[in-house]
Amino acid sequence: MRILIVDDERPARAKLRHLLEQEAGISAIAEACDGIDAMQQIAAFAPDALFLDIQMPEVSGLELAASLPAPAPLIVFATAFDQYALKAFDANAIDYLLKPYDQARLRRALQRLRERLLARSAQPLPPFAGEHALRQLLVTERGVTRVIRVDQIGWIETADNYVVLHTAGEQPLMRQTLAGLLDKLGPGFVRCHRRAAVQLAWIERVEALDKGDCELVLRDGARVPCSRQYRAAVIALL
């Protein structure tokens, strides 16, 4: 099992690493000091599981959990605060370790991880949508069907039961959900807001705003909102 420890406090990371090193079946351990560092390490280290603190600067553990790309590593929250337990399990956490915990309590969490990993490995993986990502979309408006090249779409936003495809010169409407369209478009697009997604290749810079939010400035000058919930995932993919 490959484990990534995510905690902004060095002593807490060191203690957990020491406890993990005494357990069998763990092949590699890595550490991240915050949510943004964690997203970069997830891409490079490919952990099976995260031991994740909740209260961290910039991006909280709950926000990081919500922004993990699929298939996501399993999550065990390890925190000194018990008031987040319900939210943690809403985020599909495998376990919730309340600091300070001992070796026996950690061992139970590891057993739950092993059982879930075993169950996951027994299930066939779904086909990856990116293998059949679309190169063009057919958009019908007022009886006219047009071909929209996917590489010409800078970003997408929701509009009631439609999505707006923002290209360099026009913004056609398409009757489709944002989540459904992203499944078809593949990994070149990433969600950056609950109402928006952006094509990664179009991003020129990221400008920070208040409260952890930011704006993504695209190559055509468009400014796309990026909420703190998705910021770490977007930056890690750039």
TrEMBL record:
The modification 4-aspartylphosphate is found at residue 53. This is Response regulator. It comes from the Bacteria. Pfam families: LytTR (PF04397), Response_reg (PF00072). Residues 147-238 form the HTH LytTR-type domain. Keywords: Phosphoprotein. Residues 2-114 form the Response regulatory domain.
